[in-house]
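Suppose a colleague, Dr. K., hands you the sequence of a protein chain of 383 amino acids and asks what its three-dimensional shape might be. Before reaching for any lab equipment, you can write down a predicted structure in token form. Begin with the sequence itself:
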Amino acid sequence: MENLKENRTADFTRHKSDDGIVIALKGCWALECAKTLSHVLDNAADDLGDAHAIIFDGSELEKVDTAGAIVIHNKLKDLEETGIPIRFRNFEKKHSRYFQMLENNGPQKEKVTVQEITTTYLLNRLGRAFINLLFLIRDLLHFFGQICVETVKSIIHPSQFRFRSVVRHVHEAGIDALPIVMLMAFLISIVLAYQGVVQLRAFGAEIFTVNLTAISILREMGVLLTAIMVAGRSGSAFAAEIGVMKLNEEVDAMNTMGLSPMQILVLPRICALVIVLPVLTFFADIAGLIGGAFSIAMLVDIPLERFIEQTRNGITIWTFLTGIIKAPFFGFLIAFVATHSGMMVKGSAESVGNMTTSSVVKAIFLVIFADALFSMLFVKLGI
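The predicted structure, expressed as tokens, is then:
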């Protein structure tokens, strides 16, 4: 009985031969011998020296199950990192099948390939990017044409236009966004006023900080920050809403029932942002002027009456209108890109996230690009 108990443990011996270092497994390599399994092979790879091979010998192996095979398999993975060839010999078929199973079903190491950066590779990437850009422009033009067609249909048949949907989107994208838009404009004007005072104080021209703040807010910062906020808030929501509907095949169901997704999903959102953005810009301008007056009063000790007088002398009606004129165009661009991205969703939920992110990035880029074009146009017109 004592000898039998000794045989119910996992053990090994190691010796050198002409073929390499031989690790002879002995005893019971099964779950019932779990206490001795975990660390039994810890010293198996010590002092390998200049061994040209490692051989696992199973001639004295009595029993193996999955638990023992996992321990041996993990040690094999460690030994593979040494680069020394590993071989098996004298294993019974019933024992070998466990190792074969682990080898077939175990996690495979991913091969990491590093792409060599060559002129051909860079030209290939550039060409693919250009082709993708052309396809995107084609899709956007096609989508714009569909919007124009649906707009004409709505003008000819006003009963088809979804006024309730427009009102809902005006409330969600406009009224709900008003507090955060005004707060952002208020804080940005404080930053502008503070930086203006610091720079102009060296020339004794702190009073012109009023002109700097008012012109910056009314012409550029008010409408631009509002558009960026709406692109991140409402634009992403539009893309995600339509994307989920596309994923759930609700858009396909509309087409099947003879309804126009452009009329139901796209046109109301575009109209809503075209209406909302000038209104939000107006309130952002007010909040920006209030923030500027507050910060300048604190920094330069200019009273409110003097701030109002200096603002009236430093701006014209066109200073205010240049920002308001740009707002509906920015609103159209944001809604256009957001709805297009939503309609492009396909395949999986991952596509919804990708297209939502893409819509925000594209919308902000187009808004800034359009703002630059408007600035050049207004300079040419002398406004």
